[in-house]
Amino acid sequence: MSQLTTFLAAAATGLTAQAAAADFNALDADRSGTLSFAEIQAAAPVVTAEEFAAADADGSGELSPAEFDAWVASKPDPNS
Ligand SMILES: [Ca+2]
C-alpha cells in the first residue's frame, strides 16, 4: 500500500517534476515507460476510467511521463 499512499499524498499536495518522475517509475510495473490504466489502478483504485482518459492527452491509451506529470499537477485535491 505504500505506493498508493505515496501517490495519493503526492496528488494531494502537488508534485515537483522530480518527485512525479519517481512516482511514475514506481507505478510503471512492467517498465514499459508508460502507465496503463491497470497500472494506475493497481496503485490508486480510486482513479476512474474517465479520469484516466482525461489525463491521456494524446489518446494513446497510456500515460507518458509528461501526461502523468501534468495530470498529477492538476490534482490538488484527490477527493474532489
Ligand atoms: Ca507500463
What report would you give on this structure?
The structure is a single chain. The protein is mainly alpha-helical and about 80 residues long. It has one domain: Recoverin, domain 1 (Orthogonal Bundle), CATH 1.10.238. The protein is built from 5 helices and 2 strands. Strands 1-2 form a two-stranded antiparallel sheet. Helix 1 (about 1-15) runs antiparallel to helix 2 (about 15-25) and helix 2 packs across helix 5 (about 65-75). The longest helix is centred in the first third of the chain and has 12 residues, at about 1-15. It is globular. The two termini are about 20 Å apart. The mean pLDDT is about 80. The site of calcium ion has 7 residues, from strand 1.
Q: Helix/strand/pairing class, anyone?
A: mainly alpha
Number of helices: 5
Rg over CA atoms, rounded to whole Å, is 11 Å
- The fraction of residues assigned to DSSP E strands is 5-15%
Report the CATH architecture. Orthogonal Bundle
How many strands, what sense, and barrel or not for the largest sheet? Answer: 2 strands, antiparallel
